[in-house]
Each structure stands twice: as C-alpha cells, then as structure tokens.
Specification:
Helix content: 10-25%
Distance between the termini: 31 Å
Number of strands: 10
Strand content: 35-45%
CATH topology: Jelly Rolls
Strand order of the largest sheet: 1-2-3-10-5-8
CATH superfamily: Jelly Rolls
CATH class: Mainly Beta
Length: 144
C-alpha cells in the first residue's frame, strides 16, 4: 500500500510539474501538497488541492471526500481521469456501476454521465485530471 501510494504521489508530483503554467508560455516547476491551494465545498465534506496553475491546458487536483461522501449525477465537457489513492466506492458512468478502490484509474470521456458514492470508513482521496482544464471551473466557487 505504501509503495503504491508513493508511486502515485510521485506521478502526481511529475504531472503537476509538467503542467505548471502550461499556458502560451510554458514554465516548468513543482507544486507541493503543502503549497497547493486548498478549496472546500460548502458542505464541508469535500476538499480539493489545486496542483496545476492558472493557464494550464489540463487541471490536476487532489480531491478528498469524507466517508459516505457523494458526487451527484453530472456531466463534464472535459475528459476526466481519477486515480484512487485512498478509500473507494461505487461509480456510475453512463448508467453502468463499477466498484473502485486504491490503485484503480477511472477514465470518463467528456459528456459522460457520472456519479460517485464513497463507501469506505475513511476518506476517499483521488488524483483528478481534467483535459482540457475547463471543467475544473466548478471549483472556483469553493471556499479558499
């Protein structure tokens, strides 16, 4: 478990480093978990650490849901990828249910109808990527 989490966090650091400031003028760099901007949902049951910078072509974030947390049915225009670092649950993609947990990568093409329910006793943490970054605008309204 520690090896898998370490590998995932290494990949997360690599992705964040590659995508930092990937606007018209690309700038290489590293965003650490401690320096990443933290945003919280108004319910207090979900948080996201923003690992990519404004202007990046893709969004990379560390999304955390409390035990029993739910993501309501929705569609995003961007492709979305989530890699499970902790916890897990049930995800429905276009009406098909999947049980997911640590080490699983979920791929959701833009326009997919998606919902999720965390079913583990502890929090669920995922590395989340949107490409392009547009769908991450939903986090702009979360408390900073």
């Amino acid at each position: 478990m520690k090896k898998r989490t370490g590998l995932a966090l290494g990949a997360l650091t690599f992705c964040a480093g590659v995508l930092v400031g990937a606007g018209p003028e690309r700038v290489a760099g590293v965003v650490t978990l401690t320096s990443a901007e933290l945003r919280s949902h108004s319910s207090g049951k979900a948080r996201v650490r923003v690992l990519s910078q404004p202007g990046a072509r893709a969004f990379v974030g560390l999304l955390e849901l409390d035990a029993g947390g739910k993501v309501p049915l929705h569609k995003d225009d961007s492709d979305e990828f989530v890699y499970f670092l902790e916890g897990g649950g049930q995800i429905w993609i276009d009406g098909q249910a999947h049980t997911v947990g640590v080490g699983d990568l979920v791929t959701m093409p833009g326009g997919s109808e998606v919902r999720f329910e965390a079913v583990t006793a502890g929090p669920t943490k995922v590395l989340q990527v949107f490409s392009p970054a547009d769908s991450a605008a939903k986090y702009d309204s979360w408390t900073r």
